[in-house]
Amino acid sequence: MATILLADDDAAVRDLVRRALTSDGHKVQVTQDGLEALDILGASASGIDILISDVDMPQLDGISLAEQALALKPSLAIVLMSGFSDQLERAARLRARKLLSITKPFTLDQIKQIVRTVLS
Fold first, then answer.
1. At 103, is the secondary structure helix, strand, or coil?
2. Element (DSSP H or E) covering residue 5
């Protein structure tokens, strides 16, 4: 099972994703924005297997967070979430070994499956 860092400014989404992934046996650390997530990555990047982040967040958006996270840990797997497909197109320039995206709204099964896929 993976250690996952989840960054989303929407409390309902954070709770949904956390519950779905912990029910699959993953350890999920929750943050409410990109800056908080970056602080955690800076302190413990080696312990994080997957970063799951909303794209549209105040202060530090998900794509900028992903870029900085990859600078800290190039092997980090990343899942970006967004309700807007054009935002996900910006992620195409990211040079991640494993990068997937999921469009909101999604089901519990869909978020579980995307994590299984990024882990394989």
1. strand
2. strand 3-7
Q: Give the tokens for residue 47.
A: 């312990």
Tell me the two tokens of residue 1. Answer: 């099972």
Confirm if 114 and 6 have CB atoms less than 8 A apart: no
Residue of 58, 17, 22 whose CA lies nearest to 37: 58
What is this structure's pTM?
0.93
Q: Which of 32, 44, 42 is nearest to 3 (CA)?
A: 44
Q: Which residue has the tokens 């990047």?
A: 45
Q: What is each CA distance from 97 to 82, 89, 94, in whole angstroms?
A: 20, 17, 9
Between 15-24, 44-53, 85-94, the lowest mean confidence (pLDDT) is in 85-94
